[in-house]
Every structure is written in C-alpha cells, then in structure tokens.
C-alpha cells in the first residue's frame, strides 16, 4: 500500500515546478471598480441578464490580479505565455481569453469552476499549483459565476496557442500532481458560506480566498504545499521567500510583522504603494499598481482589519525604540567602519543619517519592519538590483532606487546592511558576504566589482 510519506517523496521533483510567484491580491463580490491597464472592450450583444455579472467579474478579476500571470510582456490581456521560472525549467501561463481554439471559449461554468477551484483543466489534467487553486477553493460559487461571465463576455478573444512547459522528462509528467492535489487542496466552499457585515469576516474571506495572500506570504514545506491555508497556527502569513524576495510576515509581530502598523497604514500601502515609513517593492509593487489600488475602500479596510487580528509568531516582542547614536556618529565622522562609510557614500542622501528617510518618497530605515526581518533576502536583492515604487492614482510619482551590484562588493553590501540593521534602534541579525553572494547569483545581478588591493 502506498503511504502518504512515499507519495510525498515521489512528488518532490515534480512539485518544484509549482513553486512560482503567485502575487498578493484581493477580491470583492459587490463593487465594480474599473480595471486600469487591464480593461478590455465588453463583447457587443451581451445578454442583459449577464451585464451586472460581467461588471462584478471585472472587479473580481482585477482584485484577484489575474492579468499579472496570464499576460506576457507586450502581449494581449489574458492571452497567457508569461514564463514563470522554477528550478528545473519554466512554466508558461495559459490563455484564458474566450478564444474557442486556444483559450477557454469552450469551457462551461462547471469546467471553469473545476479549473479555478479544484485545479483540474477541461481535459482532466491537474494544473501546476503555480495556479493557486488551493486558495481559490475558498471562493464562493456566486463569485466564480461572476468571473466566468466576465471572461466569457468581457474579454476579447485572443488566438494564441499555449506553450508547453520547458521542463525535461520525467519531471514534466503530470500524474504526480493529482496525488499532490488530493493530499493538499482543501474542499471547495459553497454559497452556504453566508455573507456578513462583519468586516473581519469579510477580510478573512478575501485574504484566504481570491486574494491568495498565503501563496507568497506563507512558508512552504518540502513538497511545496503552503504550511497553512488559514489562521490555525503560527505558519499562516508568517513570511516566505519567493521570486528572490522575502514576502514579509503579515502577522502581529511588532518588529518584523504588522504589529506596529495601524489599519489606516495597511490600507494606505495597498491603495498608494507607500506610507510615511514604508513602500511596496518587487512583486508587491506590481500587485498594488495592477490590482489593489483599484479595490474599494471598504474591502481594503476589511483586509486590514482582519490582518490586525493575527497573533504574532513570537509572543512578547517589545516595540523598538529609536536610538540616535548612529546618527551622531555619522554626523561627527566618528563612525569609521566599512558599513558606516558605505552608507554615507551611497545611502545617506536619500535615507538620511538619521535613518528616517523622507516620508512617502524615500522609505524610513529606522525601526522598519522590513529592515528588521530575520531573513535579509529582500534587502540584499534591493541593494543589488534596486527597485521602484508603483505609480498609483493617489501617488503617481514613480520613485526608484538604483542598483549597486556593479558598485559594491559582497563584503560592502553585507557591511552596509549589517550597519543599517543594527542602527537607529534596529535589532536584526548581521548579514554575511556569503549570503550576499548567494542572492547575487540567484537574482542574476552583475558580478561584484574588482578592487585594487589598496582600496
């Protein structure tokens, strides 16, 4: 008899291909906000009884950020072809336009539901879990119906053939995925999941379901399933490394979670991409730009309110207190270590010697929950390759940070980050040159510069 343990071992190689970036997004089943950058012409002659559903589905598709994975750079909306990297090859997103030959034009509502919430394509093949159907299992059928109406009537057909995954045999075989799905995909919900005016319950529904926040913000086990799909322990939304960044903890920890954030600040970040002390970057910046900025204030508030109910991973964590000793040392020139000097030469103009940055423009480093994460992956990535804030309706200026991969050595990056993570009241572990070298290779940054021995 095959045991669960044996199946887990057999699935590891095939499941690696499913550890793709999935984004952080939200949904609403009432509002009808247009989709900036993703809106498409509604097909003429839409049946009158479908018009409201199409409008509702458009909001859901935007809030769920469907366009992010299902549109290749320069391609037609939802026509697929976006390459999603995995350690053993690329998976390409599929065409989900209503084209009858290459898209989902021949899908019935039942076919659509099976793919979306159960991970089973029309031909019976199990989808790679880069498609977050384990989260979508919690989307109500009434919302699935609205999404189906939008994709059938609100999206222009685009005849574009799907690409086969660039994964060599035997890792490309799909049969192990069906066992993975049976073990780790939860049962789908029904419309008996009653609507509630409680914003916390509304936020929970959005975060766990179409939002699929846990796809990025929850760590994964060896067989790549999320360690938790709901708030039943410390793993859920406790942070995970994906696409070369650390998707930070969204739990209540004061130093590296959302414990020190107010509901208003969470809403502000999701709506504008920045706050007085922080900014969205990497994949999150794209999600804000393409998705969350278009959500209703009511849904953003519900999400924030629910996130604030999540207990911290580490109970009893004390709030950080500002310490000005590093600022004084930088101003007086008494800080002569490589980290301090590298900061003065490359960082202080924007982030200031006080570490307080400029609110809404250059993020604060002092007592930042991003700076104080135990895992420095995101910080190393940003220093090496830089980053950009999203441009949004409420904050249109597109501020950016340059990359320093061709300017700073691994030792320089490690020293400046160690300095930042131990100054102005920050208390985070030191960063090593070996950690920087690993991230440099993983994100494809330029090789470290060569220096003369007396530099």
UniProtKB/TrEMBL annotation:
Q: Which residues form the signal peptide?
A: 1-27
Where is the major localization of this protein? membrane
Q: How is the cofactor bound?
A: Binds 3 heme c groups covalently per subunit.
Residues annotated as binding heme c 2:
213, 216-217
Listed binding positions for heme c 3 are 347, 350-351
Q: Which Gene3D superfamilies match?
A: Cytochrome c-like domain
Molecular functions (GO terms): electron transfer activity; heme binding; iron ion binding; oxidoreductase activity, acting on CH-OH group of donors
Q: Cite the binding residues for heme c 1.
A: 66, 69-70
Entry superkingdom:
Bacteria
Entry cofactors: heme c
Q: Can you cite an annotated GO cellular component?
A: plasma membrane
Q: Which keywords belong to this entry?
A: Cell membrane, Electron transport, Heme, Iron, Membrane, Metal-binding, Repeat, Signal, Transport
Q: Which residues form the Cytochrome c domain?
A: 52-155, 198-311, 334-424
Places the protein is found: Cell membrane
PANTHER family recorded: ALCOHOL DEHYDROGENASE CYTOCHROME C SUBUNIT, BLL4482 PROTEIN-RELATED
Q: Give the protein's recorded name.
A: Alcohol dehydrogenase
């Amino acid at each position: 008899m095959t045991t669960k343990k044996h199946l887990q071992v057999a699935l590891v190689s095939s499941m690696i291909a499913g550890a793709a970036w999935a984004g952080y997004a939200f949904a609403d089943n009432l509002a009808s906000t247009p989709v900036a950058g993703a809106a498409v012409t509604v097909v003429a002659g839409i049946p009158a009884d479908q018009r409201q559903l199409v409008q509702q589905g458009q909001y859901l598709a935007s809030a769920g950020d469907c366009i992010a994975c299902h549109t290749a750079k320069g391609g037609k909306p939802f026509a697929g072809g976006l390459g999603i990297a995995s350690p053993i090859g690329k998976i390409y997103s599929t065409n989900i336009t209503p084209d009858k030959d290459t898209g989902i034009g021949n899908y019935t509502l039942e076919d659509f539901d099976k793919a979306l919430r159960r991970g089973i394509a029309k031909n019976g093949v199990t989808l790679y879990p880069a498609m977050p159907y384990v989260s979508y299992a919690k989307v109500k059928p009434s919302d699935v119906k609205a999404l189906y109406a939008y994709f059938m009537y609100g999206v222009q057909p685009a005849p574009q053939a799907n690409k086969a995954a660039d994964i060599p045999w035997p890792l490309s075989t799909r049969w192990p995925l069906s066992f993975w799905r049976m073990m780790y995909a939860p049962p789908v919900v029904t419309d008996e999941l009653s609507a509630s005016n409680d914003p916390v319950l509304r936020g929970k529904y959005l975060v766990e379901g179409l939002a699929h926040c846990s796809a990025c913000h929850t760590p994964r086990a060896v067989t790549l399933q999320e360690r938790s799909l709901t708030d039943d322990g410390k793993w859920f939304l406790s942070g995970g490394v994906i696409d070369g960044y650390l998707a930070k903890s969204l739990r209540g920890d004061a130093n590296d979670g959302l414990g020190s954030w107010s509901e208003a600040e969470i809403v502000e970040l999701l709506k504008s991409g920045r706050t007085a002390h922080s900014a969205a970057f990497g994949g999150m910046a794209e999600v804000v730009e393409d998705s969350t900025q278009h959500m209703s204030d009511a849904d953003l508030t519900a999400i924030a309110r629910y996130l604030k109910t999540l207990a911290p991973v580490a109970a009893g964590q004390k709030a950080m207190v500002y310490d000005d000793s590093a600022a004084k040392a930088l101003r007086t020139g008494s800080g002569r270590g490589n980290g301090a000097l590298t900061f003065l030469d490359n960082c202080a103009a924007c982030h200031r010697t006080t570490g307080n940055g400029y609110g809404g423009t250059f993020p604060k480093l002092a007592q930042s929950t991003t700076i104080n994460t135990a895992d420095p992956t995101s910080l190393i990535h940003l220093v090496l390759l830089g980053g950009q804030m999203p441009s949004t309706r409420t904050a249109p200026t597109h501020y950016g940070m340059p990359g320093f991969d061709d300017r700073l050595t691994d030792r320089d990056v490690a020293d400046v980050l160690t300095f930042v993570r131990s100054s102005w009241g920050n208390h985070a572990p030191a960063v090593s040159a070996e950690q920087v070298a690993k991230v440099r290779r993983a994100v494809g940054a330029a090789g470290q510069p060569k220096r003369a021995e007396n530099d």
